[in-house]
Amino acid sequence: MTDRIPHVVFLCVHNAGRSQMALGFLRHLAGDRAEAWSGGSEPASSVNPVAVAAMAEVGIDIAGAQPQRWTEDGLRRADVVVTMGCGDTCPFIPGVRYEDWPLDDPAGQGIEAVRPIRDEVERHVRALMDDLGL
């Protein structure tokens, strides 16, 4: 990495659960030491309310987030693109570092099932931050 602030993009299909939780953790933990954005291939109409509740339990508010589609421009600016279950629908930009995090999808799950997903997302985000020197 250079002295420039790293830009991280989190991608999943609906941009309503995993990628929103990852974005929330990175923004909360890294503050202004990183830029972050998230997107999906088929954005949902709203963030998963159970993911919102699970994140609120750890003091992170993602209630105001809005699922959105990724953009080529946003991906080209990224230093790291993290994919979570979007498979072949995730775009590939040459020269950008990619990581795939094999996480369960919180869609349709209750809070008891989403808490371990949230905790795994946090572990991955912290490991990424360590790797980026944040």
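(the above was protein one; protein two follows)
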Amino acid sequence: MPAYFNRFYSLCSTSPARRAAGRIAPLALMAWLAGCAVLPAPTADSQNAWTARQQELMRLTRWQAAGRIGVVNGQDGWHANFQWAQREQDYRIDLIGPLGQGRVLIEGDDRQVSIQTQDGQSQTASDPDSLLEQAIGVRLPVEGLRYWIRGVPEPGPVAASQTDRNGRLLRLEQQGWIIEYPDYAPASPTLLPARIVARRQDLSVKLVIDRWTL
């Protein structure tokens, strides 16, 4: 079995993936995406803390994040390393190793996005989600993730949210997605997320952020 699935099993010792290590890879990755955290109940003053924290996070427009991404789409699954650099509206996302492609480079701003694959093919469009779907076969919410990765909602309607007493986002429902935050990075100056799980219908995305640079 590939070594990276062994790392997935180690995340949750009681997870279904641990008990089903002999199953096919997509099922193991689905179990990894499910996570193991139990959300604590918010306290009475969590809303005030969340309001202050949300304002702080929205001012954070220049950052870099590096880690791993796992995706399950129905019965198919893959994982990759990623490096994300955000400078105001400009962003650059490197996906290293998705679907055996070697590398997918995504660069864009609030007007357009371009994607370049390992074989040198390049495409440009105004919709990053559709363009990414053409490149790797899965529609990821690039614009939403730009906010969700920081632990803040994308501007617009929010169906539901839950925070802890320190104002950290634990669960968010937006744009048809359910986003959960099982873990935050204690070394991060603003306690940015260390692990994020996003689900919509039969599509699940998990981000493990190993390093934040502000």
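Reviewer note on protein two: The chain has two domains: 3-34, 46-213.
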